[in-house]
Amino acid sequence: MISDKVKLQPEVVEAVVIRFVGDSGDGMQLTGTQFSDTSAMFGNDIATFPNYPSEIRAPQGSLYGVSGFQVHIGSVEVSTPGDNLDLLVAMNPAGLKTNLHALKPGHTIIVDSDAFSKKNLEKAQYETNPLEDNSLENYRVIQVDMTSLTKEALKGVEGLDNKSITRSKNMFALGMVYWMYGRSRDYTIDFFKKKFKSKPHLIEANTKVLNAGYFFAETLELIPNAYTISPAKMRPGTYRIIMGNTATAWGFLAAAEKSGLELFLGSYPITPATDILHELVKHKHFGVKAFQAEDEIAGIASAIGASFAGDLAITTTSGPGLALKGEALGLAMIMELPLVVVNVQRGGPSTGLPTKTEQSDLLQAMYGRNGESPVIVIAASTPANCFQYAYEAAKLTLEHMTPVILLTDGYIANGSAPWKITSLNDLPDIKNRISKNASENCHPYDRDEATLARNWAIPGTPGLEHRIGGLEKDRITGNVSQAPENHEIMTKVRAEKIKRVQNYIPEIKPEFAEEGDLLVIGWGGTYGSLHSAVKQINEEGHKNIGLAHFNYINPLPKNTEELLKKFKKIIVCELNNGQFAKILKINFNGFEFLQFNKIQGLPFGNNELIEEFKKLVE
Amino acid sequence: MEAITEQKYTFKDFTSDQEVRWCPGCDDYVILRSMQKALPEMGVKREDVVFISGIGCSSRFPYYMNTYGMHTIHGRAPGIASGVKLANPNLSVWVMTGDGDSMAIGGNHFIHVLRRNIDLNIVLFNNEIYGLTKGQFSPTSLVGQKTKSSPYGNTQPPFIPGELALGAGARFFGRIGGNVPKEITQMMIDAHKFKGTSLIEVLQNCVIFNDGCFSNITDKDVKEDKQIFLEHGKPMIFGKNRDKGLVLNKLKLEVVTIGENGITQEDLLVHDAKEKDPTLHQMLVRLEYPVATGIIRSFDDVTFEEREDALTKQVKANSKFKKTDDLFFSGETYTVK
Ligand SMILES: Cc1ncc(C[n+]2csc(CCOP(=O)(O)OP(=O)(O)O)c2C)c(N)n1
Ligand code: SF4
Ligand SMILES: [Mg+2]
Question: DSSP strand E in A116-272: where?
Fold first, then answer.
């Protein structure tokens, strides 16, 4: 049944946003992934974002048990999963209730009307059935008795119990959406063949349901409000869809191979960082040593040990874990060993919002250690460039012999996007500082003149036996020293070493405008949101709004101050209470840094950004 | 470990140029010298030896060894040492730790390293006190012990390190007085030879803050009567006159005298350090009279690295991925022209 309250005027648009929502057990993540992968294969640019409850098995039908997957597909570049929906697929009342607000007025909702039972309506706290009480009259509602139609389609397929029959209704919905957007079913059917290799009845069942949904939509000629048909213009190359956390893991794999070192990961599971561990444990074929330790401290401790012994060592965590690693990170810093700490940020403080995104660990990354203990801090800004910045983190730590914190966040870590695959040959060289023989390295703290990086003398090398540790060192011999002037000198040398990294990182280049009225500043995972907002506002005629998005935070790019001077107003946008703005204020005097902050565990919305920027230029 | 070196080291080769800063008379000197003497006997190259410590008087140890070493942070040496060993299994890796370092702040790492059975050697300097911070009670201090943080007597019952270690799955546990360098040296050599995590508890006298804490067990004139020095395959016999021994009476160890009540040497228990079941080893570590010393447990088991190594070989053999590019370009990719 299709409500005709809204007149459908299909329009061709460059991009559409679709969200699949349902119960945790309804398979929404799979449905969404299939749709986005199929679209990517078709040639669209895509950005996705899963949103699931922190409860593993939340009660069925409950509002907080709703799981969703949003995908943004475009015939143009898309840089975020999008804010406002063109199509909402809701498998139950709770999903409808919690997601309706995001749907554009006049746009389409597909619901499984079978799921709108009295019990489910109550669980979703609906007093009356929204499918019957006219509350949806501003939308185009397509009611499909999906559960019944799925059962119907599966009549005669042997070996299926009731549960698996109802479970496959998500494929009915997917089939419908495939028809609506003119997508091929082949990729998904191939997926069934691989996934259920040894269970042919499941291949048959899922394919039947997918087809049933597809033909159902065809029969009704279900047309979406908004079309996006053509493939996007993407740079030529070979692509794959990648999740941020996978890209991070792969960046380190590449860095290990390029530098000729073995990769060691010491880690303790924590949302949303665990998938990096899950990914790296698979890669024993590359000799990866992924060690699940008893806690975060042992995770970083084992990495420090591996680093001392000559591995490319990393540790991965999220906010609370970074807090636990603080003391050990200070140790790695004073010992001047290479080490990468990945912090996939989530909502804080304390346990905070474990499954939501935030950028509130920036100051912890910068200053969260005792004593004067600066480290390099960099941040990835898209799911795909997690690869590039993981690689860069490894390169910097190995070449500068000081720990690096790589910040990502739940949003880009769980989001996925096309990644133009980078072959190892196309990556910059990494030169590690391992001393091969005694003549190269007289003292552990002899330094390279340009970078101030010390040499790396690893156990097993005759003649280079030495002791290092957490106590202050004599700047020449490396022996323990309490001498007052020495401590001051060493403190300054360690700071200067970080500062000199400026000479080895790219300058910041603004996008959209080199100078002008407003400079929008962001860092890390908000790139997609800020980029699309500034792009849109420029297209609307405000030609002098620039975007400076920072990936290098400590040290900041050399030309930062110069850039700030070129704009009349500056606004720093962050998903926290103003942490990067604080850093800019400390570093650059005489500027007014306006702030736009959001602390809701959610990414920026396009409209809220545009509204804010317009206020500042009009 | 690579083939035994041609070169024969002496203790001097393992002595660093750093001035030793422990209080005169501290047993830590004995342990240091025992180690410097043990290493030349182990047949390892100097560059393959690594000492890792946490924080405490005992943890100053690596600075005095002319090998690779790291003096790290309080309690975390087992984690760091694990990383060193996993990165390079060819190394002989030693954890030097105190009773506070290992069983208070580092308690979690201590039990887990023993559970995993990585081929590391741990030397626990048990002085039943916090030395470096000048005399607070530790997790091994006795109830009633007066310390700076327990002026009226300690109210926290202690761990028995061996009991904790065996409970955590330790495969090798030895206990030894801090005043018997030859025996310490030998135990270090045995620990080195043992494949898996080995733990040596040294009953270490702190002359400043807990002087005499073990003298009723370790002093020359009492030690033979108060200690039973266990050796694998030998009867559990002790005493100046070698006339006392241990038998099992129901679920308890009992001290008997040879020649009394018809007891002969044949009736005594024979020490089996290699037994998998730790029940008897547990009884031995808990025994208050006599105090069991020597290698109480030495059970050969698969190490963590062996398991990991076997898995890695298997995965490597079956994998189509040789280079990262193989992985990156595998599976669902698509080309944009
Ligand atoms: C994080 C941290 N907490 C506390 C300390 C202070 N501290 C240093 S050593 C020590 C106790 C050492 O006792 P033990 O391990 O028994 O070594 P000992 O000095 O007796 O050899 C303490 C509490 C520290 N260095 N670091
Ligand atoms: S305080 Fe005690 S343990 Fe520390 S060096 Fe002095 S005697 Fe040895
Ligand atoms: Mg102590």
Answer: 140-144, 226-227, 237-243, 263-267
For position B2, what pLDDT does the model report? 46
pLDDT for the residue A7: 62
> What is the reported pLDDT for A444?
84
CATH 3.40.50.970 fits A244-426, yes or no: yes
User: With 60 as the cut, is the pLDDT of residue B161 above it?
Assistant: yes
Contact A433, A399 (CB under 8 A): yes
Closest Cα to atom 5, ligand 2: which residue? Answer: B22
Q: How many residues does chain A have?
A: 618
Kindly report the CATH number that applies to the domain delimited by A11-227: 3.40.920.10
Going from the Cα of B61 to the center of ligand 1, the distance in angstroms, rounded, reads 14
Residues in chain A predicted with pLDDT less than 50, given as ranges, are: none
| Ligand 2 geometric centre to CA of B26 (Å) | 6
ipTM for the complex? Answer: 0.97
The yes/no answer on whether domain A516-617 falls in CATH 3.40.50.920 is: yes
Answer whether B323 touches A (CB < 8 Å): yes
Q: What is the predicted pLDDT for the residue at A234? A: 87
Looking only at Cα atoms, what is the longest distance across chain A?
85
Give the residue from B278, B311, B323, B317 showing the smallest Cα distance to B297: B278
Cβ–Cβ below 8 Å for A467 and B62: yes
The pLDDT value recorded for residue A12 is 82
Domains of chain B: 11-230+291-310 (3.40.50.970)
Residue A43: partners with Cβ closer than 8 Å, 6 or more residues away: A230, A231, A232, A234, B334, B336
Q: What is the pLDDT of residue A2?
A: 64
- Side-chain half-sphere of A70: how many Cα atoms within 13 Å? 22
| pLDDT score at B6 | 57
Residue B57 beta carbon below 6 angstroms from any ligand 2 atom: yes
Mean pLDDT over the full length of chain A: 94
- Nearest C-alpha to atom 4 of ligand 1 is from which residue? B74
Q: Which amino acid is at A48?
A: T
In the prediction, which pLDDT does A558 show? 98
pLDDT, position A38: 94
Q: What pLDDT sits at residue A3?
A: 61
Question: For testing the chain B interface, which of A308, A329, A333, A419 should be mutated: the one with the most B CBs within 10 Å?
Answer: A308
Domains A11-227 and A244-426 belong to one CATH topology: no
DSSP string covering A347-390: B-STT-BTTS---TTHHHHHH-SSSS---EEEE--STTHHHHHH
Per-domain boundaries in chain A = 11-227, 244-426, 516-617
